[in-house]
Amino acid sequence: MPVNKYLTIGFLLLLTGVFLPALYRGYSNHPSWSFVLSKITPIPSTKDALPVYVEDFVQIEELTRSVHSPAVVELGNGNLLAVWYGGTREGAKDVMLYQSLWNRKKGVWGDVSLLTGPKQTQADLHIYIKKVGNPVLLRDASGKIWLFYVTVSVGGWSGSAINYRTSIDNGNHWGKANRLITTPFLNISTLVRGAPFLYSDGSIGLPVYHELLGKFGELLRIGSGGSVLDKVRISWGRTSLQPSVVPLDHMQAVVFLRYSGHSPKRILQADTLDGGQTWSTPEKLPLLNPDSSIMGLRLHDGTLLLVFNNSEHDRDNLSLARSLDSGHTWNVVHVFEDGHTPEGRIRPEFSYPSLIQDDDGTIHLLYTWNRRRIKHIYFNPSWLRKL
Amino acid sequence: MGLSFNCLFIYEYFRVVSGSLSITTILLLVIFLLQRIFDQRMISAADRSAILYGVAGAGLVLYPTALGLLSVDIYRLGYQPIFLLLLLLIMAISMWVLAYRTVAMFIVIPVIMFNLHALESINLWDYLIDPFVMLYALGWVAYQNGKKIIWTR
After folding, report:
1. Residue, of A91 and A167, whose pLDDT is higher
2. Of B36, B49, B57, B47, whose CA–CA distance to B129 is shortest?
3. Most A CBs within 10 Å: which of B60, B62, B67, B130, as the mutation test of the A interface?
4. Which residues pair with A100 in a beta bridge?
5. A135, A203, B52, B141: which could join A83 in a potential S-S bond, CB 3.0 to 4.6 Å?
6. Which of A30, A184, A237 lies closest to B63 in CB terms?
7. Do A25 and B115 touch (CB under 8 A)?
8. A353: Cβ–Cβ under 8 A, 6 or more apart, which residues?
9. Which of B8, B104, B123 sits opposite A181 (nearest CB)?
10. If contacts are CB pairs under 8 Å, which of residues 103-132 in chain B contact chain A?
């Protein structure tokens, strides 16, 4: 048999040995597209009768000159864990991620501790890290806490990458940082803001966004081992970012997006009917948006809430909108902040809300308060029903 | 006053970009080094041309879509790579039949490395192409076609 034929047979055997396992792995690693909804817990009748509304601050003392972008998650013991970034100013080299625990029984926030920063992340990844940014949190079905956060190696926020750490002891100790590979162009320009959520197969849905050439939202599927399983584009173009995905049932969800285009400046909303595989074209809601972060939440009873800056220009108003029909119509029902602060600060800012409902039914809101403190407001459905 | 790196290892700066090198780039670099060491052509001009035209073409499809210039994102195909694998299989067989055997191996070797999870990424595209080889290929294609235009005048 001529040499060429031996070579060809050998090549075909090689192709079989290489492509068959890869095709099989690709076929068997297909993730499930079914959302996990937060469990429905009956609210005790005594709590149901008494409206509760409490305002507090996470930081008892102002440890850093500037703080921003809080994230919050409920722990298995009912306490809350909050993470935010703080330093001299946004994007400074001294910016770190800080954390604090809210004790449910006592109703107070504990001491603030340092979680991580550029040097620690750099030591774990062996990649130069210039600064850290937005954090988001998730507690998975096993009770593990996931922290996803932004880092920048070169340039500004448009040069960001996403990293994660995990904790199996409610945030007392965190594992090493790991990097998510999300783009082919030096793995830059992917950021987080919207809260992650769970799929029924145990994987994580992580809303992310780009802001290099365009501004658009995407949804990452993260496996339980931390690898990126899939990526779906939620929007595209140059005017939508920071998606907040809210599952409505096992297959349907709505997403709220920050709008960075021209007037009229409104919050964008889109939806999915197939677990996030495809999304409708985002459309403007009648709710204002001054190119600022928004956060949505589905309550246990199906009510949708949106916390947002009810203005086209400033972040001095922080309001609550409610939808009783899965996002078709909205009403502004409450104003958390209306531009006034005790110090009489010029151009106050109340922004970057983080919103959860705990297993007890209480709704917790954290947000940046004048870039100096993290404010915590919690209320119960009984209070909400009176609005 | 001297330079201060704040105890930072130089390789951590380098890794910001080197961590993104594809298997195709690594293969080309290895061939380049071997040619320099042994002073011998390791890859034919026709194979080299086919590889660089392929990289340029793939990059022109991949990067604009991944960066959001279009609504579709070709990079996503690399996470659930069945379609991409079938396409590569057909291309590898075609190249072999057309006697571009080096090109065929330039398709197969990245897939081997993908199976072995040799890179940090688990996206098949990151094994096939990176911005550096894409820029090199585009520059080479532009140079070659520029020469042809000048010679035909």
Report:
1. A167
2. B57
3. B67
4. A82
5. A135
6. A184
7. yes
8. A293, A294, A295, A307, A308, A318, A365, A366, A367
9. B123
10. 104, 108, 111-112, 114-115, 120-123, 125-126, 129-131
ipTM, 2 decimals? 0.88
Cis peptide bond prior to A264, omega within 30° of 0? yes
d(CA A305, CA A59): 26
Q: Which residue of A has its CA nearest to B98?
A: A8
Contact status, residue A210 vs residue A288, Cβ threshold 8 Å: no
Q: Which of A7, A26, A214 sits opposite B81 (nearest CB)?
A: A26
User: Contact, A260 vs A215, CB < 8 A?
Assistant: yes
Are A181 and B122 inside 8 Å of each other by CB? yes
Write out chain B's pLDDT in tens, 153 residues: 344 455 456 667 766 666 678 999 999 999 999 999 999 888 999 999 999 999 999 999 999 999 888 889 999 999 999 999 999 999 999 999 999 999 999 999 999 999 999 998 999 999 999 999 999 999 999 998 887 777 666
Helices (H) and strands (E) in chain A, counts: 4, 26
| Chain B residues with beta carbon closer than 8 angstroms to that of A10 | none
Q: What is the torsional sign of CA A321, A324, A326, A330?
A: negative
| Cβ count within 10 A of residue B8 | 12
Find all residues with CB under 8 Å of A218, minimum gap 6, and list them: A190, A207, A208, A209, A210, A231, A232, A233, A234, A243, B73
> What is the helix (H) or strand (E) element at residue A341, kind and residue range?
none
Measured distance CA(A379)–CA(B116) in Å, rounded = 51
The kind and range of the H/E element at A124 are helix A118-125
Interchain CB contact of B2 with A (< 8 Å): no
Three-state DSSP class for A101?
strand
What pTM was computed for the model? 0.93
CB contact at 8 A, A210 and A190:
yes
Structure tokens at B103: 């090109």
Burial A115-142 (b: 16+ CB within 10 A, else e): bbbbebbbebbebbbbbbbbbbbbbbee
Q: Using DSSP bridges, classify how beta strands A160-167 and A373-379 pair: parallel, antiparallel or unpaired.
A: unpaired
Largest CA distance in chain A: 92
